[in-house]
């Protein structure tokens, strides 16, 4: 990953630039980075605060082979990110589907977007990691964190962080494309912030209703398995899940 690479001082969104570059024929592994984004995007239509100039905003173009299931790709990216960060933050956890948390606060997020060209997917994997920022605006004050906030020693540079993340991400993706999520489930589940905990699950029926359940683990295809009281295990395949207060 990273050949070729484009770096921008400012972009709307590295994902948008990567999607356009992919359409224009950029190869598998091409990478877009930016110092700041003016319209950084998160999952479920949320914004990703991206003005600091001290954090990582990265999008990689992937061209998986036709026929490879890619539904759990974001989980594989989470595994790579967590493993890449583990030398600094061994306690970093994954909140299903693919947030990176430290001490319950969000350190990084992942946004995968795909377009189909015939039977071949053209995928942009975007991730943001808070590296050097120490102040977070308003609602993020209690919910976000950075390497700088978590480490007692000086935080590594963005380049150092990316240099550890990229090989870890390559290894996680290689295992995922060879064997599906089942091949890396053992590298996800032990670090999942939700497993064994009481969670609130979005019913995904448009009403905003949530049910309380216990997170049991992950299925081989990456679905989160939960159980409501004494009910049967249920699969959560999309949407959002929160730790119950
Ligand atoms: C989330 O947690 O909801 C996902 C956040 C993803 C943010 C990254 S930053 C680089 C890339 N470009 C974007 O516009 N979004 C992703």
TrEMBL record:
EC main group: ligase
EC number: 6.3.4.15
Catalysed reactions listed for this entry: biotin + L-lysyl-[protein] + ATP = N(6)-biotinyl-L-lysyl-[protein] + AMP + diphosphate + H(+)
BPL/LPL catalytic domain segment(s): 4-177
Gene Ontology molecular-function annotations: biotin--[biotin carboxyl-carrier protein] ligase activity
One Pfam family this sequence matches: BPL_C
InterPro entries the UniProt entry points to: aa-tRNA-synth_II/BPL/LPL, Biotin_CoA_COase_ligase, BPL_C, BPL_LPL_catalytic
Key words, A-Z: Biotin, Ligase
Keyword Oxidoreductase: no
Protein name (Swiss-Prot/TrEMBL): biotin--[biotin carboxyl-carrier protein] ligase
């Amino acid at each position: 990953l990273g050949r070729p690479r484009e770096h921008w001082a400012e972009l709307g969104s590295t994902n948008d630039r990567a999607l356009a570059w992919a359409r224009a024929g950029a190869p598998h592994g091409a990478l877009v980075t930016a110092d700041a984004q003016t319209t950084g995007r998160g999952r479920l239509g949320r914004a990703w605060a991206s003005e600091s100039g001290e954090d990582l905003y990265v999008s990689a173009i992937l061209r998986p082979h036709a026929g490879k299931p890619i539904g759990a790709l974001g989980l594989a990216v989470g595994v790579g990110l967590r493993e890449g960060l583990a030398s600094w933050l061994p306690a970093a956890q994954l909140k299903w589907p693919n947030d990176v948390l430290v001490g319950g606060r969000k350190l990084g997020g992942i946004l995968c977007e795909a377009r189909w060209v015939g039977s071949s997917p053209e995928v942009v994997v975007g991730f943001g990691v808070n590296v050097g920022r120490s102040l977070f605006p308003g609602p993020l004050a209690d919910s976000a964190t950075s390497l700088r906030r978590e480490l007692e020693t000086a935080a590594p540079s963005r380049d150092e962080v990316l240099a550890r993340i990229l090989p870890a991400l390559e290894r996680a993706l290689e295992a995922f494309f060879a064997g599906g999520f089942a091949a890396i489930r053992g590298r996800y589940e032990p670090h999942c912030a939700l497993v064994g905990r009481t969670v609130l699950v979005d019913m995904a029926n448009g009403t905003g209703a949530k049910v309380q359940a216990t997170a049991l683990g992950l299925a081989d295809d990456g679905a989160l398995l939960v159980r409501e009281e004494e009910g049967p295990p249920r699969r959560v395949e999309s949407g959002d899940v929160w730790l119950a207060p």
